[in-house]
Design a protein that fits this description.
The protein has about 260 residues and is an alpha+beta fold. It has seven helices and nine strands. It is globular and about 55 Å long.
């Protein structure tokens, strides 16, 4: 991305090198944003429950509105969640697809009602299932809820802009046909479950670090066994997990812990 002069216009370099540089810049911006969230989560000696909710609205974007609404759903305050969703159409110009996402998100929240998402009955779980196919932010919320009740949504890996292969694919140990690792719920409150299903390796290593890279937990998981990480003692923020064997890294990702 380069400046065209003293004006505020820019042009993009669509060469493979330019796209790679843009991808790295986006990653750096995501890391910076994560650290800002963490700073807000640590804004008091006793972490305030509304730290994230005090910061997210300042982002002033449609994505932030969905994030804010999701935080209210996690806190079982669905009336505020619906108010946030209703404000999107008032504050932003929406495409047809975005308006549909808003309508679906509102309908999903209304379906949950005054229930706690960690304690839904089978009837409501069945009613939520169709929402995992509607796309957008609604599908993400539905998938996050349903993973807590045993539904499996394998991660979608970002393709390398230059080579067209999965990022870090050469550094990863391939899973067998049925092997997979499920991490849920995410966002989390009191616990996170790591479920290693049909893995070939007898020794699966799990490391959890905070956003600054400080390791806070290291353990081993046995295949077809669930490991439960008690996150209740940890402050709100973003944590990084890495799952590996002697052959290399199998998976890594972010966990958001909210209080």
């Amino acid at each position: 991305m380069a400046s065209t002069g003293q004006t505020s216009r820019f042009y993009f370099d669509y060469t493979p090198e330019g796209l790679d540089a843009l991808s790295l810049l986006q990653e750096e911006l995501d890391i910076i944003a994560s650290r800002i969230v963490t700073h807000y989560a640590y804004d008091t000696i006793a972490t305030a429950k509304d730290s994230l909710l005090a910061w997210i609205p300042a982002l002033n974007s449609k994505t932030a509105k969905f994030w804010e609404a999701t935080e209210y759903v996690l806190q079982k305050d669905n009336s505020k969640a619906i108010a946030v969703i209703n404000s999107i159409a008032q504050e932003f110009t929406l495409t047809v697809e975005e308006q549909t996402d808003v309508d679906n998100f509102r309908a999903l929240i209304e379906l949950i009602g005054d229930r706690y998402i960690y304690d839904l009955d089978e009837i409501h779980i069945d009613l939520i299932i169709p929402y995992d196919q509607v796309g957008g932010n609604t599908q993400l919320l539905a998938e996050n809820i349903l993973t807590m009740y045993g539904h499996d949504y394998p991660p979608e890996y970002v393709l390398s802009l230059r080579s067209g292969v999965r990022a870090e694919e050469k550094d990863r140990e391939p899973l067998n046909n049925n092997g997979r690792i499920i991490v849920y719920p995410n966002p989390a409150n009191e616990f996170v479950i790591f479920d290693a299903i049909n893995m070939d390796s007898p020794e699966i290593n799990l490391v959890i670090s905070d956003i600054n890279g400080r390791k806070i937990m290291r353990t081993q998981i046995e295949t077809n066994e669930k490991f439960i990480w008690d996150s209740s003692a940890n402050s709100s923020g973003i944590y990084i997990y890495q799952i590996s064997t002697a052959s290399g890294v199998l998976a890594s990702g972010k966990i958001i812990v909210t209080k």
